[in-house]
Design brief:
Blueprint: H1 2-25, H2 32-37, H3 39-45, H4 53-82
Length: 119
């Protein structure tokens, strides 16, 4: 089971790096003044935007985001339900011992009153 968790963690890291690259490759929503001027031409010429470079990047972003979520949920389910619990050192978790309360003898009330010494 440890090998499966390791493989999922590696794939999750690769998906995260790929997601960063895909998001950085996308252009911003507003392209400034040039985007305002050329916006009409892009609307007219860009009817098949889903087949374009930006459409492909948007689709990849959605697919990779869903993949990251599924891998993360799967990893948590495996670690919580199918792997034995361990503490920070890696040893099996011990059950806590019953705590006993220790009271100093000076504070203990005797069951019978002590006989006073009489002279």
């Amino acid at each position: 089971m440890d090998v499966l968790v390791l493989v999922i963690e590696i794939v999750l890291c690769l998906f995260a790096l790929f997601m960063i690259a895909v998001v950085l490759l996308q252009s911003g929503k507003s392209a400034g003044l040039s985007g305002d001027i050329g916006g009409a031409a892009e609307q007219f010429m860009g009817k098949s935007k889903a087949k374009s470079y930006e459409g492909t990047l948007k689709t990849l972003t959605k697919v990779v985001a869903i993949g990251i979520m599924l891998l993360a949920i799967g990893l948590v389910v495996i670690q919580v339900y199918f792997m034995p619990s361990t503490d920070e050192v890696g040893l099996p978790e011990a059950t806590p011992a019953v705590q006993q309360t220790v009271v100093p003898e000076d504070l203990v009330m005797p069951d019978e009153p002590a006989e006073e010494a009489t002279e």
